[in-house]
């Protein structure tokens, strides 16, 4: 590292990349006085060097050729281009050259993190990724701090702002999923191709990273229980609300005797649960330590500046720290039966169908005889004779759901419960 | 420091001291593997060495004589005895001997922190105090992290669990202050002499420490606006709730062009404000950074184990860090007029009096002519002809309050508003 200047290379110059440059520029004085060095962006890899950009950069800094970044004398690379290919190859080549890496790329870490951590250790470079989970919320550094003195029993949270925005709008404005998704896309909260968010992949990648940190291991991604929000209806959300619950896309990591459990799925929470109160595009992470108890951290989980803030904090931090080996990442097999019911036996089941076959009496009679307890019930009929019911149940199994579908002609959707039954 | 063992002295062995010992014991393996050293409690200063204690300690460890601690070969001292005298003298003597200090004592820091920081720097020892603010919430370390890249515009929060417990109970169970205080004392949430909590001193000390960290300076304690909760009535709390607000004891630090502002006072928040949703004995801190935006941290602010967790984290952290000088603490004069209205011009005013003089019409007429806007109003009469009114106002000044008292015979209590007017 040349005296007085830290040379930074950027891979990608989209929203977050622009935010990183703005943050480095607006906070340059503060950063220099803490680091004793100026931070300079010397190379930025972009797809199109002619494109108009929100931040001004000298044309000689921009390049469309990765080899130019690799041949330059950058000390640290900030990877904010996203994706796995060709990102992994670029990051790998830079680590092998001795560059420190700061990344916000959860997909890259969840899919190739094990190799990258190992590679960084072998080349004795920093690999920092606070920005990859929950944007501006410093959850990784807080977890590292607690792990010094606490056993962390569990981590759960709302790790995706797009889906939380959609669920909030669906509830408060009683709008269908497709319409809210379109609004979210217009507002820039959702991508043109929204699958990574709405099908739970984004939250799953973040959960994978949290598990590596907390438990020193994670499950292969294919073993994580993942369910998205695209099939939720406003009817389900409304009836949940009438029963005193709210649907959130909850990511959970828990350690059970038989192994760790990871899940991302629409989950019912009593409306007074702290995570039920996280609305709009906010993220929140709740952790339980055996000494410190429960803590909740809330903030903007995405966006140009919150994410850039985390990237630049990582940058500033690693410049003041000697290299220490990163704990190895591992993947373990999911234990059999480990990702079934997460919270005792309770669930909220939404039923919808036509009245002749499916009267509340007949449904309840069936459930009672099947050994399913119904703790609370909300039934609606509309003028067309359609029955909609929400039931807080315990003991409901897949075979009961199937029978309700086949014998009663009902659509059935059950959600696990987090928190206590109201 | 002798190889393999860190020798720790304890000043005080009450609730938190006991928690520290339990935490060190239950987490010994984790701590040793991270530190490469075992932590051993070699001396503990107590008032009464005969007293029954929740944790077992060798009798030779206990002493009632501070000189024995000073003469022992402790590397680090954990100060959890509280108070300023004789604590300050003890801590001073230990620093001068070259001992590192971990303290949970907010009063000591708020009253003598400037000198202690200076002394620790001169003797090149660590002075760590995460446990002094908001117990298990790692707010100081999070703030230090954000300060690397953010300007912090403001910090506000619920820093005292006892008063938050009392306010929650007064609202949810509609009980008078004195009765809830008695319950809190029985449950161990409030001290026999509750003044430090209910008059806002405890929250003020914590706010003072936060300001030193965030702004590099604080106000002399006498210049902090401080008002407690002991004169709040359930009538005020009820009418606030009917207007859509909740009263919380809010501590705030803000930087204004004319200087910093510090206040601790009962404050009205819309019930959907994140801080309004912090109930019971929980603490919460909200910070606003220019890059990261608003973040909220929630957890148990007191109690044996959460506080002990913070103490032991500090202990584990400083054992792995070389000494670096602590930023100097300073006190600045309060700017004139700096601690007046905190949030624009809005307040919630509670009026109570007898109907003949004080009819709603006459009161509203008076306010209109005085230039006070009334945005929302809730009026109650009881059978005895007593008027109780809650008004969301703007433009209300002390002279108006005085006239409402003298000319209308009303009791008046106005609360500043945090958040937007509903």
TrEMBL record, chains A, B:
InterPro entries: Asp/hSer_DH_NAD-bd, HDH_cat, HDH_CS, NAD(P)-bd_dom_sf
NCBIfam families on file: PRK06349.1
Transmembrane segments: none
EC nos: 1.1.1.3
UniProt entry keywords in alphabetical sequence: Amino-acid biosynthesis, Methionine biosynthesis, NADP, Oxidoreductase, Threonine biosynthesis
Residue ranges of every copy of the Aspartate/homoserine dehydrogenase NAD-binding domain listed in the record: 12-130
Domain of life: Bacteria
Organism whose genome encodes this protein: Brevibacillus choshinensis
Annotated family: Belongs to the homoserine dehydrogenase family.
GO molecular function: homoserine dehydrogenase activity
Lineage: Bacteria, Bacillati, Bacillota, Bacilli, Bacillales
Pathway: Amino-acid biosynthesis; L-methionine biosynthesis via de novo pathway; L-homoserine from L-aspartate: step 3/3; Amino-acid biosynthesis; L-threonine biosynthesis; L-threonine from L-aspartate: step 3/5
Catalytic activity: L-homoserine + NADP(+) = L-aspartate 4-semialdehyde + NADPH + H(+)
Name of the protein in its database record: Homoserine dehydrogenase
The Homoserine dehydrogenase catalytic domain, residue ranges: 138-315
Signal sequence extent: none
């Amino acid at each position: 590292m040349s005296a007085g200047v830290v040379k930074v290379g950027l891979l990608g110059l989209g929203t977050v990349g622009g935010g990183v440059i703005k943050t480095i520029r607006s906070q340059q004085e503060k950063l220099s006085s803490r680091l004793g060095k100026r931070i300079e962006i010397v190379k930025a890899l972009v797809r199109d060097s002619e494109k108009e950009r929100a931040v001004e950069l000298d044309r000689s800094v921009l390049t469309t050729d990765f080899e130019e970044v690799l041949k330059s004398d950058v000390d640290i690379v900030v990877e904010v281009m996203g994706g796995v290919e060709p990102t992994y190859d670029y990051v790998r080549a830079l680590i092998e050259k001795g560059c420190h890496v700061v990344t916000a790329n959860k997909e890259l870490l969840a899919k190739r993190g094990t190799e990258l951590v190992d590679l960084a250790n072998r080349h004795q470079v920093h690999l920092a990724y606070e920005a990859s989970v929950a944007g501006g919320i410093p959850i990784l550094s807080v977890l590292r701090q607690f792990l010094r003195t606490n056993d962390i029993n569990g981590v759960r949270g709302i790790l995706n702002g797009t889906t939380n925005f959609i669920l909030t709008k669906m509830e408060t404005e009683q709008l269908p999923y497709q319409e809210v998704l379109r609004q979210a896309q217009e507002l820039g909260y959702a991508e043109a191709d929204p699958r990574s968010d709405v099908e739970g992949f984004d939250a799953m990648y973040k959960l994978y990273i949290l598990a590596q940190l907390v438990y020193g291991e994670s499950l292969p991604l294919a073993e994580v229980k993942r369910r998205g929000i695209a099939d939720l209806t406003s009817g389900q959300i409304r009836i949940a609300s009438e029963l005193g619950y709210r649907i959130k896309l909850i990511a959970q990591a828990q350690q059970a005797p038989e192994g760790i459990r990871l899940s991302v799925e629409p989950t019912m929470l009593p409306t007074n649960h702290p995570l039920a109160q996280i609305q709009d595009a906010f993220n929140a992470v709740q952790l339980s330590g055996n000494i410190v108890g429960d803590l909740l951290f809330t903030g903007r989980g995405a966006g140009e500046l919150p994410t850039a803030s985390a990237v630049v904090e990582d940058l500033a931090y690693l410049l003041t720290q000697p290299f220490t080996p990163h704990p190895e990442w591992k993947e373990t097999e999911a234990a059999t039966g480990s990702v079934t019911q997460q919270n005792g036996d309770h669930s909220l089941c939404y039923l919808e169908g036509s009245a002749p076959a499916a009267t509340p009496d007949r449904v309840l009679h069936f459930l009672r005889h099947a050994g399913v307890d119904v703790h609370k019930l909300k039934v609606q009929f509309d003028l067309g004779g359609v029955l909609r019911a929400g039931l807080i149940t315990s003991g409901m199994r897949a075979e009961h759901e199937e029978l309700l579908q086949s014998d009663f002609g009902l659509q059935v959707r059950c959600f696990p419960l987090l928190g206590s039954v109201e």
